[in-house]
């Protein structure tokens, strides 16, 4: 879901960059106050894993592929939506500048779509659904799915404002493909959370009920 | 599990995924590209035949609509090292994974330092 530069007008790209920068500053503030030096190696490993798994495009029907984003997982594991913003911003910087995946002008929008929406929907979806279902892994699956799906919907709206997509086909096509790709996001989020909860339940901000 | 062990296992898993990714990854366009090509009639909404000419024309058309001609020359475009084929793809993702590890470690260390 990385918007390339040619799909985005420069002025609109700058507006999204300004909004993204506000969230990046808040994410840095979160890191300063809440991350804790003991978590630093874990955050780095999580980011490396998210980068690697993003490179794995899984086939979905209709000649399309999808990959994980990972902001929801980061937010759930580290207990803050800003953890998703923090990690995804750095992932998207490397993807855009080094690998040409996602534009530079459009990077602000990509940070908002994947990092901010991913982090916030992932985190609050998880904590909210967990209260209702009392099952952390079902909650992680649904939150991961929703984070990806809502990111895609917002992306379609942005591209409609940009004039690249007409609104209704944009929403229909992006929504349909990402409703399926969201299953990958939800599945990997739940499995990764289970593995982390089994190995190191203490690093999770919210216990899942699995003990090591 | 100790932190050191957790970190080592985590890095190992990330590297296994990084090495496997170029062999397992689908070459089909992703969700956004598919939506774009479908909207511009270069690919059926629920089909997999991509018309390369129409796809190129779609990109030109979109660039004309947005007026954004900015282009950035990436070092390893599309997760490849130009001229190295599959080895280059594996190396690109492995380098990216290690770069992420170092970058996030560095930024997180500086960012996580308490104010006092």
From TrEMBL, chain A:
Topology with respect to the bilayer: Multi-pass membrane protein
Gene3D superfamilies linked: 1.10.1760.20
Where are its TM segments located? Answer: 6-28, 40-62, 68-93, 105-126, 138-165, 177-197
One Pfam match, by short name?
Answer: CbiM
What keywords is this UniProt entry annotated with? Cell membrane, Membrane, Transmembrane, Transmembrane helix, Transport
The entry's localization annotation reads: Cell membrane
- Xref: InterPro entries: CbiM/NikMN
- Which protein is depicted? Cobalt transporter CbiM
**Organism of this sequence:** Methanoculleus caldifontis
- Organism placement in taxonomy: Archaea, Methanobacteriati, Methanobacteriota, Stenosarchaea group, Methanomicrobia
Gene for this chain = cbiM
TrEMBL record, chain B:
Protein's UniProt keywords contain Isomerase = no
**InterPro entries assigned to the protein according to its UniProt record, in alphabetical order:** PDGLE_dom
Keywords of the record, alphabetical order, are: Cell membrane, Membrane, Transmembrane, Transmembrane helix
Q: Which domain of life is it from?
A: Archaea
Ranges for domain PDGLE: 4-112
Q: Where in the cell is it found?
A: Cell membrane
One Pfam family linked to the record = PDGLE
Q: Which residues cross the membrane?
A: 7-25, 90-112
Q: What is this protein called?
A: Cobalt transporter
Which species is this UniProt entry from?
Methanoculleus caldifontis
């Amino acid at each position: 879901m990385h918007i390339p530069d040619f799909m985005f007008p420069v002025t609109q790209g700058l507006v999204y960059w300004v909004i993204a920068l506000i969230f990046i500053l808040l994410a840095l503030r979160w890191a300063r106050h809440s991350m804790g030096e003991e978590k630093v190696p874990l955050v780095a490993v999580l980011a490396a894993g998210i980068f690697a798994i993003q490179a794995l495009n899984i086939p979905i029907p209709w000649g399309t592929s999808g990959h994980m984003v990972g902001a929801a997982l980061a937010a759930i594991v580290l207990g803050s939506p800003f953890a998703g913003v923090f990690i995804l911003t750095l992932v998207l910087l490397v993807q855009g500048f080094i690998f040409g995946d996602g534009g530079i002008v459009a990077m602000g929008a990509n940070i908002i779509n994947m990092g901010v929406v991913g982090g916030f929907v992932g985190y609050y979806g998880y904590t909210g659904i967990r209260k209702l279902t009392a099952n952390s892994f079902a909650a992680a699956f649904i939150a991961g799915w929703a984070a990806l799906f809502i990111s895609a919907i917002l992306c379609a709206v942005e591209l409609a404002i940009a004039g690249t997509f007409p609104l209704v086909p944009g929403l229909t096509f992006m929504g349909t493909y990402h409703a399926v790709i969201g299953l990958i996001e939800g599945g990997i989020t739940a499995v990764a959370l289970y593995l982390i909860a089994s190995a190191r339940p203490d690093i999770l901000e919210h216990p899942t009920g699995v003990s090591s | 599990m100790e932190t050191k062990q957790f970190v080592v296992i985590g890095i190992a898993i990330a590297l296994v995924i990084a090495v496997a990714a170029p062999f397992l990854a689908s070459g089909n366009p992703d969700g956004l590209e598919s939506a774009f090509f479908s909207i511009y009639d270069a690919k059926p909404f629920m089909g997999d035949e991509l018309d390369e000419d129409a796809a190129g024309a779609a990109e030109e058309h979109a660039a004309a609509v947005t007026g954004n001609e900015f282009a950035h020359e990436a070092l390893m475009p599309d997760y490849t090292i130009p001229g190295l084929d599959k080895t280059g793809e594996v190396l690109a993702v492995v380098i990216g994974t290690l770069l992420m590890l170092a970058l996030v470690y560095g930024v997180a260390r500086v960012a996580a330092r308490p104010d006092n």
